[in-house]
Write a structure and sequence with these properties.
With 350 residues, the protein is α+β, with helices and mostly antiparallel strands. It has five helices and 14 strands.
Length: 350
């Protein structure tokens, strides 16, 4: 038997009640969703690489001019007939320096078999202490400014926590009987809930500036004037009566002249000897021009300079004579590193 048909007022009332129940359920769902707090946002700044010191290789040093090694022996054993003056002349030294290096109080007293030091005592120590040990410059790979490691940053784990704890799980939407009071509560809760504000993502911090360590090369020392550059002049006027001969042990040239004729310094330098201590030379003057060259002036009548005196090229230093010689003449020698050389190779054309 079919159910009796509802009258129009009853059908309208039932439809209105159903609509109210649906609206109430919808408001409850909206309130539940609005009351849920947004998921916490954890700020994760990118890992910034620490400052890196990049090293710039040092500039290629300018090679120093190679100095000629010291040709003198470290020691010399005195032979019979040697004098300190002759030993000093043969080795291009000042006899006073040689005496000081060997603690000789009397320069006229040396014995056969005695060993003389031919270099300054501090020279060997300084040579050993002057060495500088170098190590290769440690470098690191180049770093591009702004480069950040692409490895993922894993936050430290906290005991007793899990990923689900970061999210709110209550309250959950539940069906409740419809009432006017429930509807008002839902509306008040929806109005009181603060709007969700999106948290902007943090901007990556700029990478720190790359510190560059530059090693400035030291300036190369100015090369000293070469010891070979000596401006020579003739020490006296006259004809050459005896020439140089290494085979005949003629250690210089003899220039004939008149008694008392001026004798000049062939080049500027320091007088390291003035006297009669070398047998066969008479009154002798020795001038040291630099670390390579000496010049000797023998058989003078008078010596006009003193030991230790600085003289200039062409300055009158003596008068020609015949001391310890068979005639009036000037015996002139040029010694390179203590060894006699032909003066005509260095003197200008006559």
């Amino acid at each position: 038997m079919p159910p009796p048909a509802l009258s129009f007022p009853h059908a309208l009332f039932r439809a209105t009640a159903l609509q109210r129940l649906a609206a109430g359920a919808l408001l409850l769902c909206v309130a539940a969703c609005a009351s849920r707090q947004p998921a916490p946002v954890e700020e994760r700044s990118p890992r910034v690489a620490p400052p890196v010191v990049a090293s710039v290789p040092a500039a290629t040093p300018v090679p120093k001019p190679t100095a000629e090694p010291d040709w003198r022996p470290q020691t010399y054993t005195v032979k019979r007939g040697d004098t300190l003056y002759a030993v000093a002349l043969d080795h291009g030294l000042d006899y006073r320096e040689l005496a000081a290096w060997n603690n000789l109080e009397n320069v006229n007293l040396i014995r056969a078999g005695q060993v003389l030091r031919m270099t300054p005592p501090a020279e060997s120590v300084a040579a050993g202490a002057s060495g500088v040990q170098t190590a290769p410059l440690r470098t690191v790979p180049p770093v591009v400014a702004g480069d950040v490691s692409s490895a993922p940053v894993t936050p430290p784990a906290v005991a007793g926590t899990s990923n689900t704890d970061n999210y709110k799980t209550q309250p959950k939407a539940q069906k409740e009987p419809y009432s006017e009071q429930a509807l008002r509560d839902v509306q008040r809760a929806a109005a009181a809930a603060p709007p969700a504000t999106p948290v902007p993502a943090p901007l990556p911090e700029p990478a720190p500036p790359v510190v560059v360590s530059r090693i400035d090369p030291k300036p190369a020392p100015e090369p000293a004037d070469g010891d070979e550059k000596v401006d020579w002049v003739w020490p006296a006027k006259g004809r050459i009566v005896t020439g140089f001969s290494e085979a005949a042990s003629l250690k210089g040239i003899d220039i004939g002249g008149a008694m008392g004729q001026p004798v000049a310094a062939s080049a500027g330098g320091k007088v390291v000897y003035a006297g009669t201590g070398l047998r066969g030379y008479g009154k002798l003057i020795i001038i040291k021009h630099n670390g390579t060259f000496l010049s000797a002036y023998a058989h003078n009548k008078e010596i006009l300079v003193k030991e230790g005196q600085q003289v200039t090229r062409g300055q009158k230093i003596a008068e020609m004579g015949n001391t310890d010689a068979d005639q009036v003449k000037l015996h002139f020698e040029i010694r390179r590193q203590g060894k006699p050389v032909d003066p005509l190779r260095y003197l200008p054309p006559a």
